[in-house]
Amino acid sequence: MNNPDLKQQVDSRRTFAIISHPDAGKTTITEQLLLFGGAIRQAGTVKGKKTGNFAKSDWMDIEKQRGISVTSSVMQFDFDDKRVNILDTPGHEDFSEDTYRTLMAVDSAVMVIDSAKGIEAQTKKLFQVVKRRGIPIFTFINKLDRDGREPLELLEELEELLDIESYPMNWPIGMGKGLEGLYDIDNERIEFYRPEQYEGERFVKLTNGEIAGDHPLKEKSIYEDVLGEVELVREAGDQFDLEKIERGDQTPVFFGSALTNFGVETFLERFVDLAPKPHAHKTETGEAVSPYEEEFSGFVFKIQANMNPNHRDRIAFVRICSGTFERGMDVMLGRTGKKMKLSNVTQFMADARENVEEAVAGDIIGVYDTGNYQIGDTLYEGKLKVAYEELPSFTPELFMKVTAKNVMKQKSFHKGIYQLVQEGAIQLYKTYLTDEYIIGAVGQLQFEVFQHRMLNEYNAEVVMTPMGNKIARWIDPEQLDERMSSSRNILAKDRFDQPLFLFENQFAMRWFADKYPEVELKSLM
Ligand code: G4P
After folding, report:
1. Residue 94: CB within 6 Å of ligand 1?
2. Which superfamily is assigned to 281-380 in CATH?
3. Average pLDDT over residues 332-343
4. CB-CB contact of 101 with 424 (8 Å)
5. Is residue 346 over pLDDT 90?
6. Measured between alpha carbons, how far is residue 435 from residues 402, 461, 493 in Å?
7. Distance 22 CA to ligand 1 centre (A)
């Protein structure tokens, strides 16, 4: 497909996901970003809702817009000549393998951290998935308007727990009630939190790292303290290194408060500048396809099944890797060799009125699916004939024993289970000797979706018995000795008949490792 502006359009794309622990402020910051991008008109801050700052009709309007924007899986807006795609990574009870797979479709990630809590469990898990991909990670330390931990301590924790270098782009001047502003190392200026206290000026330029002449901030002791801290990190900390950032070995750190919209714009401006444009994607053969390749290609990274029993339709989310998508185009589905017409497709436009019918490499499209697509499928146009690398499997942490409720319906039970496993909705294991079915997931919701879809799509009612959290570790079949199985682990095999142990807890795993030091315990991604 001929698109003369393809390179320019691709280069303007910034496709990323926000990773964080529930309550760190992902929704709040997303909303602020959408606001800056003009994708919504008014910030529906939770505070606003609680104190009734907005008239009711206003609020409903915002909710309606948020319904489309914030709760949907992909949000798109334009900012500074860039087209930004934010991919949602559901947290809380929605957390699932889809959350991890979404991270396979982005070019960078933004990690939001609560300044009082530091690195929390879910952030760490998501971070590790991103880190393995070697893509840039930007950090936003949130909630400066509340008393939190010392910035130096937070940076130390980042480096220790996540094993990544950090570079502070700015530095908080106070926190909580004493928050004065940000010492913006990157832009050589100070950004005031309450400009009205400083004659209305939001920024003041720095000369040789200091405010020139008299200024009321200089009379406060915090000013000298911050100068000292900034000097310390300049001298003892890591130097800004773009190459390291691009490899995901250094994270630029921004401070701010999403709720009061402080520091968010400063972050966004720099982020769209530093974040990478779409890169070449690797195929199964190890070669990479350039995003500027004219023919369209992409891969399915997520399938969202409709939970409404009256609708069996699903949406397959496709990350475009090359070329231009046009509504109604014909593409090949590599796995089946079938020709597919991409007519019923959702695009995630900032402004529906534009009614743009095109999307390019870096963008995400949602393809209406009646059961043709699987996670990891490649779609391509014309002669391109590519197959993108298989998406990784993720080590499940939650397990259930599963049986068919009605023994007469074994056939549909097996068909359903195998199809859902193939599709990537759930992982399947069997106990090693007795062949009982065990299903594994990274989040509880996957079990609920599984149960629901088994009933509605395959007419198979399932009985699930929780086994709780387990640590799954694979071993070399050659090293397997059935006597290694004990009351603190379950010996199982995966769907490729590879043996693994499901350990009760870390203690049980360590005990095993001590007892059988020659046996290597391997996890998936
Ligand atoms: P999430 O999507 O990461 O789960 O977080 P979300 O944005 O929903 O924010 C979680 C809570 O933290 C919200 O409070 C939100 O208003 C608050 N919050 C987000 N950013 C900031 C910030 O910069 N400063 C302060 N002080 N609060 C912030 P909430 O819904 O009222 O719930 P609650 O948890 O306070 O009860």
Report:
1. no
2. P-loop containing nucleotide triphosphate hydrolases (3.40.50.300)
3. 95
4. yes
5. no
6. 11, 20, 9
7. 9
